[in-house]
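Backbone-to-sequence.
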């Protein structure tokens, strides 16, 4: 991941004499667009966090991943090798007062974009370029394979447990219904025993 960190603005006097009060800085939304040179046609990433301190407003921005945008790749290379190493803010203010430096002091500023620039108005807004390992999905550990007991087929079960089925002898005193049942049993028993060589 390609990351930029630094002050988007500070309380220092810039080259035109302007001052932006850090305590009055507000961000329109998060994440905020990160542009190349204040050009709205050149989005190169997003500002993902901003925190004000006594010096200014520190931000963290993520550049578009490598290979996804030629524009972002060009600006990333410029940042990496020091050709573009500063932030600048695009903002609106409800009002400003003239100051002794020949510029204006902005007590409030609603920031709608931050840009990576080559020549900043405020030289204290240095953008530091760092590369961090991309987040990758954790290796999925395969679940142990448990041998599953397979239910034997009826034929296999029958063959494994095959026992000789005895024939029922007829005594001569059975009722006709019983005789028919005995005859059917004996036929099945003979077929079973023959099938299993019993």
């Amino acid at each position: 991941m390609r990351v930029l960190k630094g002050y988007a603005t500070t309380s220092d006097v810039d080259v035109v004499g302007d001052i932006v009060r850090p305590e009055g800085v507000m961000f329109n939304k998060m994440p905020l667009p990160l542009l190349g040179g204040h050009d709205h046609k050149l989005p190169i990433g997003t500002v993902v966090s901003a925190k004000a301190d006594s010096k200014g407003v520190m931000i963290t921005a993520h550049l578009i991943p490598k290979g996804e945008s030629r524009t972002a790749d060009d600006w990333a290379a410029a940042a990496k090798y020091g050709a573009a190493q500063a932030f600048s803010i695009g903002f609106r203010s409800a009002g400003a007062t003239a100051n002794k430096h020949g510029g204006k002091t902005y007590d409030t500023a609603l920031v709608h974009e931050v840009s990576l620039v080559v020549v900043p108005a405020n030289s204290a807004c240095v953008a530091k370029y760092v590369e961090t390992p991309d987040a990758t999905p954790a290796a999925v550990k395969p679940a142990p394979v448990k041998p599953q007991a397979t239910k034997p087929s009826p034929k296999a079960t029958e063959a494994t447990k095959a026992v000789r089925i005895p024939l029922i002898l007829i005594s001569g005193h059975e009722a006709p219904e019983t005789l028919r049942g005995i005859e059917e049993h004996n036929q099945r028993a003979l077929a079973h025993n023959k099938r299993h060589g019993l």
